[in-house]
Amino acid sequence: MFPLLPLLPLLLLPSPSSAADFCVADFSGPTSPLGFSCKKESAVTASEFVFSGLGAAGNTNNIIKAAVTPAFAGQFAAVNGLGISAARLDLAPGGVVPLHTHPAASELLVVTQGVISAGFISSANTPYTATLRKGDAMVFPQGLLHYQVNAGGITAVAIVSFSSPSPGLQITDFALFANNLSTPLIQKVTFLDAEQILKLKKVLGGSG
Amino acid sequence: MFPLLPLLPLLLLPSPSSAADFCVADFSGPTSPLGFSCKKESAVTASEFVFSGLGAAGNTNNIIKAAVTPAFAGQFAAVNGLGISAARLDLAPGGVVPLHTHPAASELLVVTQGVISAGFISSANTPYTATLRKGDAMVFPQGLLHYQVNAGGITAVAIVSFSSPSPGLQITDFALFANNLSTPLIQKVTFLDAEQILKLKKVLGGSG
Amino acid sequence: MFPLLPLLPLLLLPSPSSAADFCVADFSGPTSPLGFSCKKESAVTASEFVFSGLGAAGNTNNIIKAAVTPAFAGQFAAVNGLGISAARLDLAPGGVVPLHTHPAASELLVVTQGVISAGFISSANTPYTATLRKGDAMVFPQGLLHYQVNAGGITAVAIVSFSSPSPGLQITDFALFANNLSTPLIQKVTFLDAEQILKLKKVLGGSG
Amino acid sequence: MFPLLPLLPLLLLPSPSSAADFCVADFSGPTSPLGFSCKKESAVTASEFVFSGLGAAGNTNNIIKAAVTPAFAGQFAAVNGLGISAARLDLAPGGVVPLHTHPAASELLVVTQGVISAGFISSANTPYTATLRKGDAMVFPQGLLHYQVNAGGITAVAIVSFSSPSPGLQITDFALFANNLSTPLIQKVTFLDAEQILKLKKVLGGSG
Amino acid sequence: MFPLLPLLPLLLLPSPSSAADFCVADFSGPTSPLGFSCKKESAVTASEFVFSGLGAAGNTNNIIKAAVTPAFAGQFAAVNGLGISAARLDLAPGGVVPLHTHPAASELLVVTQGVISAGFISSANTPYTATLRKGDAMVFPQGLLHYQVNAGGITAVAIVSFSSPSPGLQITDFALFANNLSTPLIQKVTFLDAEQILKLKKVLGGSG
Amino acid sequence: MFPLLPLLPLLLLPSPSSAADFCVADFSGPTSPLGFSCKKESAVTASEFVFSGLGAAGNTNNIIKAAVTPAFAGQFAAVNGLGISAARLDLAPGGVVPLHTHPAASELLVVTQGVISAGFISSANTPYTATLRKGDAMVFPQGLLHYQVNAGGITAVAIVSFSSPSPGLQITDFALFANNLSTPLIQKVTFLDAEQILKLKKVLGGSG
């Protein structure tokens, strides 16, 4: 009844495509300040929009009894350019995600199991802390120091999302004690005692 | 030992504060293109960064056997200005979130219970579909039509996050059939038959 | 009189150039989340900033009696990175641009000939409709469903501009009926009857 | 058949609304760096999304034989926050839009009548010029000096759009000669002769 | 000779003004996620674009022998909305700006007197350090931990600029030890010993 | 005491890296609308975050007795993608930076030696001028015409920063008189007399 072909040109805009819909990361291409290069749309399959890594518990058999499983652009190529990413957080009893920041994103955490004590500290040095139970959400504004601690008797699990495909993760202790920054310099810029610094460098693999 | 007071001015920058850390929504103030006005920082308490509404199952006793519980800026004032928000999705057996878009955000869904069949359609009219189990994540690029359907025998639950504090939600059926757009106009712009339109208008409360 | 050469270094900043002025698309290079790669400035000519395709009427000899002639970044390389693009809309008598969205841009339409009935529907399902005559402009906010219909006896023409070089275009009918999404799934996510779906799939070339 | 009411809560998200869809300017409220305050959505009518001022020819009975009729956020409240605006340009025979910039937007011009000679100059001082006929489009990158001149025997008309609701408009001659900047200062920063400056100050209403 | 009045309407666009040029902060109005409200343009004077506070040495008579004099939007109203701000840094001999971040901005430091040893640590825990002499510039990427230390025998001075009018400032030591976060919690999230924590809380005025 | 290895996976996120921390320009790669490609993080050294070119006086032995030494992304690769850049300004006695704009950035100037008279002109043609002494700062909003003139008896020096890594620089006189734009066209779009134009073309190297 209706002639079909004359309609198609309306939709099939002349290539090249414009990357307006999505930009699944092509890790073999150059990166730009806004993220990875885009795979050609014709090479993108539905499965690339799915990330299954958040289904399994992370390995919490470590000193912090915690695991963060990221689904950032580096692991979940489809979020590249879309302004969002996620991670799974596992906290065994006694577990802790030490004080850290995400330099490039705000974080929104939703507890799916257990109890988590969490908090962040503002630029005015005011702490904002809360005890979160299953289903509770908490938001941590961009770039501010924050932490999560298991506050219950069982493993706690949370789904966290970020306002960037590449939020970054800077754990204060690792920034200070897991590299070769000299102990006198660390003393100078943190007021910590040398013994304290050397003790933590030993734990975290730092030298100097 | 150390003189304390001379150090404080370094931190206590002269007010007024700059809203750089966060901007908890003040719903009584004016809105700007980027969101709600900010509450004064001195009036903000830790509990405002916590949202507990995602802990309880939504009421799925409706025709779509589904419920969306939003934690957008309108409900969760602390996400205002932070580039992120969340929601809980409950899908009873047989439940469906009908075809819809978020005009202002990409969505990242993580299944926390059950099985969900989901998909989106690109500007090139290509469908990208997947079956998601507990722990699976899927990303839906900004502004594109997508849906979620319970694909298992039990209620499915998902935590969804968005790349905007106010992602918007436009359900195609409601946009078409739940208002007074005239049936001839809808026919004209959708190619649907009048009987079909009138049938759905009746279901969804539309007139005309 | 004035010594010329010493002044030149002020202007001729050392290369490489910074792409600050413009970024004419190089379709042979990689794409980033923000658009196409830039041609080298030395290879860009004045004619690349001109697009002549909007001068000729589009072919409206099709089922919707309409034609959209895009000048997006994919067709008009010079708008890449500049936050704007355009298109020409031709609507023969009886013509219609079916319900659609632009996932990545707001649209501003200016009627240059004839009469157009247009409208968009908000997230709150409220329709905003108007009859537009020559010289009238209407703005369609980003990502919302909208349509344009010829409301006069002669061909209507409009110049439309977009707040993105790559606004995207998702026509609801084509997203639903011009691909292989299964009829039961479409029923499920749209409440449409199977007969209606099959009828439109036949018209628009879909299967399943 | 279907129970209607239980479905509605899915759509009718609890107020306050989130300003995600649009932000029609409320000129009585405060302005933010991103634009005007938003009118309450319940007070916004369809007619506010329509601007009729571009339909009538501007008055070109002036020294430049030209008129610019803006539909910026200040005149067309609905474009506030939407990243786009427009204007109509009328150029009588001999008419000119003198050298100017838009500090906050790129411009895309489409000729709808007559012939226009236009050009812009890059940071590298390279001119990019073209002769534009009906239907031709040209893009002027953000912040760069550009001009439009009638290059035909009849009045030329163009529809111009901008990548900002408030593009700004700085005409070089008016910036220099239509205020009280002192003649010696203008000499110093432009190398122009005092006689030339005084002559143009007289024409354009400047003093000093 | 030239008729003046007909030209003026081209320039004097109908008010209200659009805030496109600048948005000098009105501290008495509401704040938005992007910054302070704008003063009316007619009330803005030239002197508001000038900030004289960077001319005088800050008071370094404190435990860190350092002073930061900010010219952020809170102090220098004219930078509101303009994407930039500045500060003066004074480091007496032995002075230090302790480890800190700017949650919302990158920093660019230019030494104007003396010698400064500075560094930042990346998300990968890699330190990037340098010794900076008069005229040397160093950039510190957004949100990353960094420090500055006087590395010469005389007072060092630097002009620092930021990519935001409200960069924020979070000094790690003050975030940890200048408030009432409990010592056991700090132990838990930093691995520091209780004695160390209590010692620094005493110095910096914290409790708990 | 603490087992070290199990902790490391928390930090050492699987490569590829995400470019979240910084994006030092790789001038050999393609450019995107937002800037240069990023060097691989493993190839970036600390010295790349330091720029020493601002330490030496620029050569002011030219007709404007001024020199601008840029540290834009093209010269200082580390600022690429970080939203900031800088430059040094030297103004010998009698020196001037002629009227110019930065199409893509606001500018913040801090005087470090001497006296500078500076000003900008708004879209409303209002001049905002000031006399700046050592330590005074002035901000010039994006895209607006501005100038700097030595207003003292000694060489004046300033550190200027910009809200973009690639602010651009368009000097009005050079845009008009240092290329081959025809004299009649310049007359037409500036109202300047032909003699004046020809005189300045001769000085600045233009033809036509």
Automatic annotation (TrEMBL), chains A, B, C, D, E, F:
Q: Which SMART domains match?
A: Cupin_1
Keyword annotations for this protein, in alphabetical order, are: Apoplast, Disulfide bond, Manganese, Metal-binding, Secreted, Signal
For oxalate, which residues are the binding ones? 102, 107
Q: A single Gene Ontology molecular function, please?
A: manganese ion binding
- Subcellular localization, as worded in the UniProt entry: Secreted, Extracellular space, Apoplast
**Signal peptide start-end:** 1-19
Signal as UniProt keyword: yes
Spell out the disulfide connections: 23-38
Record domain Cupin type-1: where = 52-198
Q: Which InterPro entries match?
A: Cupin_1, Germin, Germin_Mn-BS, RmlC-like_jellyroll, RmlC_Cupin_sf
Top-level lineage group: Eukaryota
Any single Gene Ontology cellular-component annotation: apoplast
Cite the binding residues for Mn(2+).
Answer: 100, 102, 107, 146
Q: Does the keyword Secreted apply?
A: yes
Per the record, the similarity remark reads: Belongs to the germin family.
User: What protein am I looking at?
Assistant: Germin-like protein
- Which organism was this protein described from? Dendrobium nobile
Classification of source organism: Eukaryota, Viridiplantae, Streptophyta, Embryophyta, Tracheophyta
